[in-house]
Specification:
CATH architecture: Alpha-Beta Barrel
Distance between the termini: 36 Å
Number of domains: 1
Strand order of the largest sheet: 9-10-11-8-7-6-5-4-3-12-13-14
Oligomer: single chain
Bound molecules: S-adenosylmethionine, iron/sulfur cluster
CATH topology: TIM Barrel
Order of helices and strands: EEEHEHEHEHHEHEHEEEEEEHHH
Structural class: alpha/beta
CATH class: Alpha Beta
Length: about 325
């Protein structure tokens, strides 16, 4: 086949340009957040997940096809051996404008300066509560003080921006949204509140009962802050508000209450090499099979990626009142 037929941009069948790739480099994690995992998880065997070289080859193929932004996520990306070397290599891919990271913050106290040096521009750090005991009960294995030290180290390292991500659950941490915003303001950080998505079976709570919609969070915040609708965009589904008199932006990721599918610009690569075309559907293409069948042949990979765009569905199918229809947990896709 003629290499010239490959497009320079990825466009799906609904006319959406896809220029953002999220890559889960591991399904493993040092935390077991109650909304993300069950307590007793079975992780993928090593041979089943992409090697660092395969991840690099796939990301390079995407960038050649017009992907501008790559987010490295997990599981916890920074617990995978070789993660720093991979990030440093990705940071040098010509044409990649934005290399960004989502982390639980557990390793940042030591790794933040090296991440900045590797070319990571911005970081999202998950933080659902400022109460050490609640933090332990929400993450099951995490330690709040370690994550707060990680946030401080990330600030010192000088990233373009740092955003906190908080998944809000009714009766677990919904009472803390004002404190979390105060913390963000105090440290000149942004913060996004995320509605829990029904991905995989979790054991500790009923997702319908724990649902705490974005509009209630906005109502809670409005009693303490002046929220001004903002034009700010991180190129994602967050709707942003600025807080009068501060530099802090507050985002709301509301898959249930404010559907964002019409502007979706992203696809996801799972740790085992499935290209997932929508977080809320199972449409996927096995890029691991392609990269292993044609090692060193970037054309086959690019062809498979271009063809996959035609499978991207129009919208997600989340329904909190039914059993999950998506049985993979969030650590498989990285959010
Ligand atoms: N371990 C890293 C972290 O926690 O930031 C990166 C991976 S984690 C899967 C990415 C994001 O997904 C986190 O902000 C986490 O809070 C969020 N998340 C996990 N499970 C979720 C769920 N069921 N619904 C909504 N967000 C979820
Ligand atoms: Fe790990 Fe992130 Fe999932 Fe928490 S949300 S269990 S930190 S992957």
């Amino acid at each position: 086949m003629d290499i010239a037929v490959l497009p320079s941009h990825l466009v799906d069948q609904f006319g959406r340009t896809i220029d953002y790739l999220r890559v889960s480099i591991t399904d493993r994690c040092d935390f077991r957040c109650v909304y993300c995992m069950s307590e007793d998880m079975t992780f993928l065997p090593r041979a089943q997940i992409l090697s660092m070289e395969e991840i690099y080859a796939i990301v390079s193929a995407f960038v050649a096809l017009g992907i501008k932004k790559v987010r490295i996520t997990g599981g916890e990306p920074l617990v995978r051996k070789g993660a720093m070397e991979l990030l440093a290599k990705l940071g040098k891919i010509p044409g990649l404008q934005d290399l960004v990271l989502t982390t639980n913050g557990s390793q940042l106290a030591t790794l933040a300066p090296a991440l900045k040096a590797a070319g990571v521009k911005r970081i999202n750090i998950s933080l659902d509560t400022l109460d050490p005991e609640k933090f332990k009960s929400l993450t099951r294995t995490g330690d709040l003080a370690t994550v707060l030290a990680g946030i401080a180290a990330a600030k010192m390292a000088g990233f373009e921006s740092i955003k906190l991500n908080a998944v809000i659950l009714q009766q677990r941490n919904h009472q803390e949204v004002v404190q979390l915003v105060k913390f963000a303001i105090q440290h000149a950080l942004d913060i996004s509140f995320i509605e829990e998505m029904p991905l995989g079976v979790v054991t500790e709570h009923d997702r319908f009962e724990s649902y705490y919609p974005s509009h209630l969070i906005r109502q809670d915040l409005s009693a303490h802050f002046t929220l001004l609708a903002s034009e700010h965009s991180s190129g994602g589904p967050s709707r942003y508000y600025s807080i009068a008199g501060t530099t802090t932006q507050v985002g709301f990721i509301s898959p249930h209450s404010e559907n964002f599918c019409s502007t979706c610009n992203r696809v996801r690569l799972t740790a085992e090499g499935r290209l997932l075309l929508c977080l809320g559907n199972e449409h996927a293409v096995d890029l691991k099979a392609v990269v292993r069948a044609h090692p060193g042949n970037s054309y086959s990979l690019k062809r498979a990626i271009v063809d996959a765009m035609q499978l991207k569905p129009e919208k997600h199918e989340f329904n909190l009142q039914e059993q999950p229809i998506i049985f993979r947990h969030m650590n498989v896709t990285g959010g």
